[in-house]
Design brief:
CATH topology of the largest domain: Heat Shock Protein 90
Number of domains: 4
Oligomer: single chain
Radius of gyration: 51 Å
Strand content: 15-25%
Helix content: 40-55%
Distance between the termini: 138 Å
CATH superfamily of the largest domain: Histidine kinase-like ATPase, C-terminal domain
Number of helices: 20
């Protein structure tokens, strides 16, 4: 044993002995032996202790340390005894050490425990928990310090690392867009990030401890209980695709939740953790996309059927042209008192009905507008409704028309047909009578309007609303209502073309029509037509009688039947007629008679050279040539393009003698 060390320890023990002697008044040998044995035990404990032990004098100079202390700091015994406790204390911790030492000297404390940093010989430092005891003499004067030092550097580093890890993960949780949460086994929040507050609309202090039943519907709460119960029993995580919550401010949100079981160190379940995402906008976008895809598919189907219907109507109109032309010529030859005159007039009415049928088909096929005018819809709707109400007394009509309604550019006859179709449809939905509500309104649709109808551009529109109190329609019927030949009516009560032609006419006017209905709660049709800035111009009355002339006219049509009857009709009106069966033939004839031909009646659809190309070739020969387009189709895209290029007029087959005579004179006399 080191003599000096023993001496130091002996001094400490002597102080104890003096106290013992004063108290007992004894100095016998047995007491000295007991003191010696106590010192021996103290020495054994001192050297074998795993903690660092140091003895310092009242000024803090180190008098003795054990082996554990040397290992902690790396000094030799000679080096350490030249130092004070302040020398081996980190500079940042010295002031706290001075304060504690001062309190001990002043008798305020006899011992203290603190955590501080100790400087090692190599320049590093360690964290230690020091337990210091002040040893005083009988007069209460400080003699020695006895200090036990436990190295907690690793524990401190681990604690700091854990703290930094927690901080890092906290930062991660707060930076992600998803909400992270932890709940106990009853579903009460125990931890969550700020995004959970953002999603639910609750403040942190409100949400802490809240149960999921407090921000969900009863049905959703039951669903969540079943899912979390399954996670608890199986230990497997679960994903909830549509978890509906109710925000604090009222709106509902749809969340996507992933949940898993939390366990403590002994593997006992203690709660659930999970990640939630707000998918409300995504689900709404998916619904909108599905709706738009359905509308696009429906539009494509309607387009295909419309093309087929348009071709049928074109050929049918050519046939009707043959009937109409022959009937017109026969009526001109017969007096009004001829017995066959009545039959021919009946046939003419049947041709007209056939023409109206093809007009409906072409309307669905979006075959175009015939005679576009700038009008105010209030007057047109008012007159159409009054005419309809005269024959349907069981229907009460209510009108609400906006004053200063914007003008629109429409084919008046086609819009009248649309209104009649919708009025009849409403009447048939109210077999026992009912109410029909008509409303007009100026509306301006913005790009991001939620209620903006699909496939309609932003801008100014005139909206027509037609509502009835009838039987209404289910969703399946609404999806097919504008298809041609689709009808819910019994045989003989409808062809299924009324609403189909209505759809086509409105689409061809760059507008849109939609319907809202519920079974047993009536139906509302809304029509949007682009507003116009043009002024309404009143038309002059047309003469009713057929007007003839003596000019030379060239008739171009590849249908032999139409060409023959057309030639006969024109000649009966007094004109000189040249007939061309194709575009190529028309160019030759016109080139040879350019000065004599005053008007060309040109068919649009021809096999070798289209009406459009023929038009361009004729204009190249004679730029001021007057040309009247004629077609079994209506004024569709190609014909509209030619009209804009300087064509003088358009007439649809079948036409009678009065119609063609008026159109010819309008152009020639202009």
């Amino acid at each position: 044993m080191n003599t000096k060390s023993r001496g130091t320890i002996g001094m400490v023990m002597n102080e104890t002995k003096k106290k013992f002697d004063l108290k007992s008044g004894s100095s016998d040998h047995s007491a000295a032996e007991e003191l010696y044995q106590s010192e021996k035990r103290f020495r054994t404990v001192f050297e074998a202790a795993p903690l660092g032990i140091a003895i310092a004098n009242a000024k803090g100079y180190i008098l003795e340390v054990n082996d554990a202390f040397f290992r902690l700091l790396g000094y030799s015994k000679d080096e350490i005894k030249k130092l004070t406790f302040m020398d081996i204390t980190h500079p940042d911790d010295r002031e706290e050490t001075r304060k504690l030492s001062r309190k001990a000297r002043e008798g305020m404390i006899n011992s203290y425990q603190t955590e501080k940093r100790y400087l090692k010989k190599n320049g590093d430092y360690l964290w230690g928990i020091v337990r210091a005891t002040a040893i005083k003499d009988n007069n209460g004067n400080l003699q020695y310090w006895l200090a036990l030092i436990e190295d907690v550097t690793e524990r401190k580093s681990a604690k700091e690392a854990l703290k930094q890890t927690g901080k890092r993960y906290r930062n991660i949780l707060e930076s992600i867009e998803e909400g992270y949460f932890e709940v106990d086994l009853k579903g009460n929040f125990t931890f969550f990030n700020d995004q959970v507050c953002e999603i639910t609309g609750y403040q942190r202090q409100e949400l802490m401890g809240m149960n999921n039943r407090q921000y969900t519907s009863p049905a959703t709460a039951r669903k969540m209980y079943q899912i979390f119960n399954r996670v608890f029993k199986t230990g497997k995580s679960a994903k909830i695709a549509k978890y509906e919550i109710i925000r604090k401010d009222g709106p509902k949100k749809i969340l996507e939740v992933s949940a898993s079981l939390m366990r403590n160190l002994d593997d006992t379940p203690i709660g659930f953790r999970g990640v939630l995402r707000d998918v409300t906008d995504r689900i709404q976008a998916e619904k909108d996309r599905e709706r738009l895809e359905s509308q696009v598919q429906h539009a494509q189907k309607m387009e295909a059927v419309g093309t087929l219907a348009g071709g049928i109507a074109h050929d049918f109109n050519n046939l009707l042209m043959g009937f109409q032309g022959n009937i017109s010529l026969m009526l001109m030859d017969l007096g009004e008192d001829h017995p066959h005159c009545e039959f021919l007039e009946n046939m003419e009415r049947y041709v007209k009905r056939g023409s109206e049928l093809t007009r409906q088909i072409l309307g669905f096929a979006r075959g175009g507008k015939y005679q576009v005018k700038t009008i105010i819809l209030n007057d047109l709707i008012d007159k159409s409704a009054d005419m309809f109400s005269r024959t349907k007394k069981e229907i009460t009509i209510h009108k609400k028309f906006q004053e200063d309604l914007w003008s629109v550019e429409v084919d008046q006859g086609q819009i009248e047909q649309v209104l009649l179709n919708l009025f009849v449809n409403a009447w048939q939905a109210m077999p026992g009578g009912g109410n029909l509500f008509l409303e007009t309104e100026n509306v301006t649709l913005e790009e991001d309007d939620y209620d903006k109808p699909h496939a309609i551009s932003p801008g100014r529109y005139v909206r027509i609303s037609i509502s009835d109190t009838g039987t209404g329609m289910d969703k399946a019927t609404q999806e097919r209502i504008f298809e041609p030949f689709f009808t819910t009516k019994s045989v003989g009560r409808g062809t299924g073309l009324g609403l189909a032609s209505t759809y086509g006419i409105i689409k061809n006017h760059n507008g849109i029509i939609n319907v809202y209905s519920e079974k047993g709660h009536g139906a509302t049709f809304r029509i949007y037509l682009p507003a116009s800035k043009k002024q309404v111009i009143k038309e002059k009355a047309r003469p009713e009688a057929a007007q003839g002339g003596t000019e030379m006219i060239m008739l171009v049509d590849d249908e032999e039947m139409v060409a023959d009857i057309g030639k006969d009709m024109l000649e009966r009106l007094g004109y000189t007629v040249l007939v061309a069966a194709s575009g190529t033939e028309a160019i030759k004839i016109f080139n040879a008679n350019r000065d004599q031909v005053k008007l060309v009646i040109l068919d649009m659809i021809m096999p070798d050279m289209s009406g459009g190309e023929t038009f361009n070739r004729l204009k190249a020969i004679k730029p001021d040539a007057k040309i009247l387009l004629s077609s079994g189709y209506s004024l569709n895209g190609r014909a509209s393009k030619i009209m804009k290029q300087g064509c003088n007029g358009f007439i649809q087959k079948p036409f009678n003698l009065k119609q063609i005579s008026r159109k010819i004179r309008e152009i020639l006399d202009a």
